[in-house]
Design brief:
transit peptide; Cytochrome Bc1 Complex, Chain A, domain 1; about 45% helix; six-stranded mixed sheet; 12 strands; 17 helices; hydrolase
Length: about 450
């Protein structure tokens, strides 16, 4: 560290070490309670459940998301109106979302209302009424949501990317499920999914902000201590590995104004030691949008090329992780006849990562990655989400100073090594929607994943 920055660097290191610790307790039934008490006036508490669309099959695909919708439609203790009034009167926010590997229910409230919020959350996941009338009404809501998703082309492209990259496996299915399933899922399908997957060892009660850990543990024992660990039906099998297949899917539509393209290779899972260097490599490629300043003076080579020659309207590099696999790649939006030019620049940048990336670039990417990670933890809800997700993925919360040290230890050689391992001469998965006639044939894309040079 240069002399003029030494005092700042010391203060930064101390700030990382002085964040409130994450307390962890496991109840007798296997449910984990994890929290970070920052003494704030507000708090976020939530239930992170190790169950998402990856745990479904072809017949019940969409059931996890359907359950999330049914959660706020009333329980055996309170009707939907009572539930909504209770939350509104507290001035709290109740929300939920479903991903491919996790289902989450959380509440944001004043710290004094945490006991009430936990009681409501535990009631929702244990005693949801799942009434036939509400199920029928919610089918229409989900079908409308599917129509909305169809208009978000980024989501459409990423769903296609998963369906081709993980074809024939559970990660290839969408979270919302196919229309025929939404129309045919029954109350029994919902009950079967809950009894198979909502088990206490697979649930984490996470809290952040003005939360007292001992109080959380007491509340968890009181409201969630009755969650069972035994199975009434057949015990669900362990997750089978999801095979990655280099392949492509193109939905050509020349009436659309812009082409939307995603290209990805198989990345690393959450717990893989290559994950941090891959995140640094991902940050090196970066993200760019036409509306940003900087243009040709951008540090990212790809941003400079895109700005100077108008190759794309926007692009973003991504590193999506799952338990045992991941997708590392790039998504871009461009004019109809710019697909080939943009692809050439993307693959040239990838080859540069594999061969000639410099220490100065990697140092910049490390700093940017650290900044982005700390900015993402700004507020009680992101911290609560970070705790819940890390408990399910790593079975612990990685302290900020450890994460910073792991990022800081990544050198240019490490980036070149992981890029050689995951990118160089690997079969990519490609998904493209819109006027994509100009996108080269898959064999040409594959043949640009390596260099023949003397």
């Amino acid at each position: 560290v240069p002399k003029r920055f030494q005092s700042t660097a010391t203060a930064y290191k101390q700030a990382l070490i002085n964040v409130p610790p994450t307390s962890l307790t496991q109840l007798d039934n296997g449910l984990r309670v994890a929290s970070e008490d920052s003494g704030a006036a507000t708090a976020t508490v939530g239930l992170w459940i190790d169950a998402g669309s990856r745990y479904e099959n072809d017949d019940n695909n969409g059931v996890a998301h359907f359950l999330e919708h049914m959660a706020f439609k009333g329980t055996s203790k309170r009707s939907q109106t009572d539930l909504e009034l209770e939350v509104e009167n507290m001035g709290a926010h109740l929300n939920a979302y479903t991903s491919r590997e996790q289902t989450v229910f959380y509440a944001k409230c004043l710290s004094k209302d945490v006991p009430k919020a936990i009681e409501i959350l535990s009631d929702i996941i244990q005693n949801s009424k799942l009434g036939e009338v509400e199920i029928e009404r919610e089918r229409g809501v989900i079908l409308r949501e599917m129509q909305e998703v169809e208009t978000n082309l980024q989501e459409v492209v990423f769903d296609h990317l998963h369906s081709t990259a993980y074809q024939g496996t559970s990660l290839g299915r969408t979270i919302l499920g196919p229309t025929k399933n939404i129309k045919s899922l029954t109350r029994q399908d919902l009950l079967d999914y809950v009894s198979s997957h909502y088990k206490s060892p697979r649930i984490v009660l996470s809290g952040a902000g003005g939360v007292n850990h001992e109080e959380l543990v007491k509340l968890a024992g009181q409201h969630l201590g009755g969650l069972s660990t035994s199975y009434e039906q057949e015990i669900p099998s362990l997750l089978s590995p999801c095979r990655f297949t280099g392949s492509e899917i193109r939905v050509r539509d020349d009436s659309m104004p812009l082409a939307h393209v995603a290209v990805a290779v198989e990345g690393a899972g959450w717990t893989d030691s290559d994950n941090i260097p891959l995140m640094v490599a991902n940050t090196l490629v970066g993200a760019w949008d036409r509306s940003q300043g900087g243009g040709v003076n951008n540090a990212s080579h790809l941003s400079a090329a895109a700005a100077e020659s108008n190759f794309a309207h926007s692009f973003q590099s991504f590193n999506t992780c799952y338990k045992d696999t991941g997708l590392w790649g790039i998504y871009w939006v461009c004019d109809p006849l710019m697909c080939e030019e943009m692809l050439f620049n993307v693959q040239s940048e990838w080859m540069r990562l594999c061969t000639t990336v410099t220490e100065a670039e990697v140092a910049r990417a490390r700093n940017l990655l650290k900044t982005n990670m700390l900015l993402q933890l700004d507020g009680t809800t992101p911290v609560c989400e970070d705790i819940g997700r890390q408990m399910l993925c790593y079975n612990r919360r990685i302290p900020l100073h450890e994460l910073e040290a792991r990022i800081e230890s990544v050198s240019a050689k490490d980036v070149r090594d992981v890029a050689m391992k995951y990118i160089y001469d690997r079969c990519p998965a490609v998904a493209a929607v819109g006027p994509v006639e100009n996108l080269p044939d898959y064999n040409r894309i594959r043949s640009s994943m390596y260099w023949l040079r003397l």
